[in-house]
Amino acid sequence: MSEMNPEQKYWFEKKKQKKNLKIQARRKPEDMPLRITSLMDALTIILIFLLKSYGSDPININQKEGEMLLPKSVSTTNMADAVDIQLSASTILVRNNAVVNVKNGKVDANSKRDGPDGFFIDPLFKKLKDEAKKLKAAEKQGGRPFKGDAILAVHKGTPYRLLAEVLYTANQAEFKTYTFAIVKIRE
Questions:
Q1: Does 162 share its domain with 78?
Q2: Same domain, 76 and 50
Q3: Mind listing the pLDDT tens digit for each residue in 53-97?
Q4: Are 49 and 80 found together in one domain?
Q5: Considering the entire predicted model, what is its pTM?
Q6: What is the mean pLDDT of residues 125-141?
């Protein structure tokens, strides 16, 4: 057997390789190392994508036909972190908490400091003042500086008078810079 021609050597090596493959196939599963490197890479990429897409907007607004529809825009700037104030057809909300009801585009006169012709909305002022206090306390503990920024999400059918009342009240509660939320559309 020591004197094999090249063709015999070739077939002998092939047979030996085939036998080794069979032995490896019969090996017990606990003998095989677990390789999860590529799985971890895929999971890391998915996790990063989800974190980026989930945390990209500072507010989440549920739009309902006739209740809360935002205007559309082709603006490319992103919203900054701020207190969100939502004006729907039936409610004014601060950070998704209902503050005062709206009926026919107006706030009830009992909720205003100066009666039906007043601009100052008491419950909204109290809630925004509490938010300002929280943000200032967080600033003292090393958080972001309080700048008095507010993001307004306004239903597109909201009367200007109601918007003016909300802006006036927010200004009195130390929120002086406003960003209006819109729905981005593609050009």
A1: yes
A2: no
A3: 665 555 566 666 666 666 665 555 555 568 889 998 899 999 889
A4: no
A5: 0.59
A6: 91
Is 110 among the domain residues?
A: yes
Q: How many domains, the chain?
A: 2
Please state, in angstroms and rounded to a whole number, the distance separating the CA atoms of residues 19 and 156.
76
Same domain, yes or no, for 78 and 47?
no
Q: Cβ neighbours of residue 156 under 8 Å, at least 6 residues apart?
A: 69, 70, 71
Q: Please, what is the Cα angle at 94 between 121 and 138, to 5 degrees?
A: 110
The two tokens of residue 76 are 């490319």
pLDDT level of residue 173 (50, 70, 90 thresholds): very high
pLDDT of 42 > 90? The answer is: no
Instruction: Give me the domain span that covers residue 159.
Output: 72-184
Whether residue 125 has pLDDT greater than 90 = yes
Our CA angle for 168, 172, 174, nearest 5°, is 120
Q: Which residue has the higher pLDDT, 52 or 131?
A: 131
In a domain, 98, yes or no: yes
- Are 47 and 100 members of one domain? no
Nearest CA to 157 out of 71, 94, 64, 86 is that of 71
Residues 94 and 10 in one domain: no
Pair of tokens at residue 67: 């209740």
Q: DSSP alpha helices (H): ranges in 55-150?
A: 122-140
